[in-house]
User: What shape does this take?
Amino acid sequence: MFILYLLILANTEASSSCVKQDCECKDFISNGCENPLSTSEVHADSIPTCLTNCKIFSSINLCEFALFQEPTQIHENCLAIGDEDVDIFLNTCQNHGQPLYDSEGNELMEDCDLCENCKNCKPCGVPLSHQVGVDCTKWNTTDYIASFPDVETHIDCANTCRNSDIGASFMVYEHKERTCYCYDNGYRHCATQLIPVGFNQTL
Assistant: This one.
């Protein structure tokens, strides 16, 4: 089962309106993804530094997105990926998770055309322009509000959790088991951050 690791940060900014990691585009997550071939592997002390390296390689068509790990985990922690589109890479992942609403109650989807019964859907980017957590885990396997078997896609999972009127704010979909889990939080730990070359930090 896709386990989401509960991570409550003691130094969460008081000004943040999204304290449960479940109401921003950057709260989209994936797990169990294939390892893509990299065109560059360097050390970077931050996401902006890693993104700069990706943009340099992008100028010669060798970086579509970067994969960043914290410097304490591995020395060459910034990978430039140039021979694979973001959506193709994410489609290799075994599990997907996403927030259902933003902090103002507007629905969130990557493609709002696929949002069922939505009144004011906010797109999170097609093409992708926000960061995505990769290799993400959630702590407790039993803290979901509801689960639904035989759900066809992660898009169907998002619509199911949102339309079930159970107070869900986050969902996780397991592709192999075709099981949808609805949560009231997105607390997690992600070992890696995917940063598209067109990263928009405001999303």
